[in-house]
Each structure stands twice: as C-alpha cells, then as structure tokens.
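INPUT
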Amino acid sequence: MNPILAWIPILQPGGSLGNYWWLLLFPLVVGISIAYRATHQSDLAGFWRGVLTFSVKSTVAMGSLGAAMYLFVYLVIPMLRVG
Amino acid sequence: MSHDSTHSDEPLNWGAAFFGWIVPGLGQVSIGHARRGILAGVGILGLFLGGLLIGGVDCVDRHEDPLWFYAQAGSGPIALAADWANSALLKTGKVGELVETPSSMPRAAPMLVSSFKTVTPANEIGTLYCALAGLMNLVVIFDALKRRPLERDDSTKGHAR
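OUTPUT
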C-alpha cells in the first residue's frame, strides 16, 4: 500500500524529509514571523512584505551562526594547541 | 518596537488575554483589532498544527516531556487536547498498536510503547514547532493584554485594524 494512503494525519508522524529535515526550519521561521509581525507592526498595510523581510533576515542569521559554528569546529579548534 | 496603540497608563485587558489563550488571536479580535488577531492566530495555529502534522500528537506529552509541555501549553486548550489524544489514544493502543521495547534500565521489564512513537528528527522538529507556537502565543497574549481597545482609541484613523 502507498504509505501516504496509510498515514493518519495528526495522530501519526508525517515524517521529516530524511536528510533534508532542516528544510522544515523555513516554514517554522515564517510562522514565527507572521505571529511576531502581527503584534509588532503598527501599520498592517505592508504586513506580508514585513513577514518576508523578517523571515529572510532570521534565516540568514541562523545560517550565519551555523557557518560560524562550522568554521569554529573544523578550523579553529584543530589549530588550538593541547598542553 | 512600534506599539502605537499600547500605553502603559491604560488598564490591562485581562479578558482579552484570557480569550487569547483560549484561541490564539482571539484576544486582539475581542478588543477590535480583528485583522491583527486573525493574522496572529493563523501564525500560531499554523505552527502548532504544522508540528502535529510533522511529528504527530506524540510531540505533546506532559508526562514524558514536561518542560516542553509547559511551553506548548501557551497555545491554549489545543495543547491540552493534543496531550489528551496522546495519552488516551496512542498510549492505550486504541490507535496504532503497542509494541514491546527494551527498557533503558537494566533488568527492567520491557515497556509497551505506541507504534506511532518516533525518535526521529520528525519528533524533535514537531516538538519544537508546538513549543514555539506556545511561546509565540505568550507574545500575542501580552500584546492583547496591553493593546488599547479600538473603541477607546482616540487615534483610530492612523491605525490599521
């Protein structure tokens, strides 16, 4: 049977895209942005533009932190002298 | 922050805060900021339901993951309902089946866990979605608590609803 047909939404886990689980962080950021901008934007006229900007900024910030951590672990730490 | 319609000398909207916990965004709607409340509710409920779709109701468990549950409970009764569904449907085997799993404690009897329980990133991401939905709803609730009701707002022309 097709596993999608056997899936019971909400009760049963939907899966995590395998090795691409990190892609699920993007809709997470968008959801947070919608809730945040809805309460922190005085004029809702440019709401969706604000959501997009906030989402992109947050994603870039997280990516930068990840890149910085990668460089620290794989470049800086091996250069440290032990003892 | 640009809270043009919030003032520290205004009385706090405790009723709106309560409504905001019952249904995310309803607090803003109850004080006249309908569009703002609906948008906030869409964000919060989208996060929570997204978490349940990714990880299932096993993501909300007040017995096994109490700290996560405290954050998730900010989403309101929907978190309590998800926890109930986990306890009453999954853990009893009414949905799915109970399978024997070796206990983490040596010499302890095997445990029965639901076949719908996962230890994959799906569970972690789902738990994170639901917890962040609860924490963001606290932000929305505090906004409803302090936001000036639209009926009493003397500068409504300048504010989008």
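end of record. The helical segments of chain A are 3-6, 25-40, 47-79.
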